[in-house]
Amino acid sequence: MSWHIRGTYFEACNCVAICPCRRIDGVPGGRSTHGICMGVLSWLIEEGAVDGTDLAGLPVALATHYNDDERGSPWTWILYLDVRASSEQRAALEAIFAGRLGGDAERHFPWAWKESELLAVRPVEIDVDHTRRRQWLRIRDCLSVRIRDRYDGIETVTCVIPGHERPGEELIADELVVQDGALAFNFRGMCGYGTTFDYAG
User: Fold this and answer.
1) What is the pLDDT of residue 128?
2) Is residue 201 one of the residues assigned to a domain?
3) Mean per-residue pLDDT for 49-75?
4) Number of structural domains, the chain?
5) 170, 155 contact by CB (below 8 A)
């Protein structure tokens, strides 16, 4: 099964900017700031398809948690898919983001190559805006993320999830809130990151 999606990406987590998990001025990242990372990842697909199923215009989000001191640092995560997508579109997106279709997911998605636990796949109404340095994401009764602006620094920063080959910028999040069962956290003034993505398999 062939697939290809491209678009824009942003994330926020509880690390202090610059997130130490990222590659900074070419130096590989390491442990998260607090040893436990909690965050939200967001993709907005501009163009793409899985075996003819068009995915253009669809958002995808993840709420995540992992502990650096847990053996293998497995990710615990919830996948959010837009309820306005068809069942075929949601199935295609779940297959990509769970890593079942291989390809670039095996290089970019830590939850796909590690021992990880997918808690739920939720069809929800996703409200999102990927305007540069003003990104925001809301899922009613589940989560809210709002970027304040870029991080004030001159470092070159890249992230494995969109890809180290892609230029991006460190951001500061005004709000990072998740209230969804086992994943529940609330932070302000922590780190974010924004760039583009282009995955295929």
Assistant:
1) 98
2) no
3) 97
4) 1
5) yes
